[in-house]
Amino acid sequence: MARGTLRFWAAAKAAAGTHEEPYDAVTLAEAVAAAGEGRGGEFARVVGRSSFLIDGEPVGTRPHESVTLPEGGVVEVLPPFAGG
């Protein structure tokens, strides 16, 4: 198990009801599933469309089950942004 921080931005922050929280997980999939417990459908919808950075590095299209989290890492949850 690794411990670190999940940071939520924009719509993910609104759906989570917080800007950040700790994680205690081996993989990104485990951390996201634990964060979603008790948060409902809006959180799942937003996070399901989000991009992720781990310590500033993009996860890209890698399956979240295969992404190992580092001890003390920071996972940024970035929902799609609108703009012009």
Record the SSE blueprint.
Blueprint: E1 2-8, H1 11-16, E2 20-25, H2 28-36, H3 41-48, E3 51-54, E4 57-58, E5 74-78
Parallel strand pairs: 1-5
Antiparallel strand pairs: 1-2, 3-4, 3-5
Could you explain the architecture of this structure?
The chain starts with a strand and ends in a 6-residue tail after the last strand. 27% of the residues lie in helices and 29% in strands. 26% of the residues are buried. β3 and β4 form a beta hairpin. With 84 residues, it is α+β, with helices and mostly antiparallel strands. The model has no long low-confidence stretch (mean pLDDT 95). It is globular. It contains 3 helices and 5 strands. It has a 5-stranded mixed sheet with strand order 2-1-5-3-4.
- Strand neighbour order, sheet with most strands: 2-1-5-3-4
Q: What does the largest sheet look like?
A: 5 strands, mixed
**Cα distance spanning the termini:** 41 Å
* Average pLDDT metric: 95
- The proportion of strand residues reads 25-35%
Shape: globular
Strand tally, please?
Answer: 5
Q: SSE order in H/E notation?
A: EHEHHEEE
User: How many helices does DSSP assign?
Assistant: 3
Q: Please compute the radius of gyration using only Cα atoms.
A: 12 Å
Show unreliable segments.
none
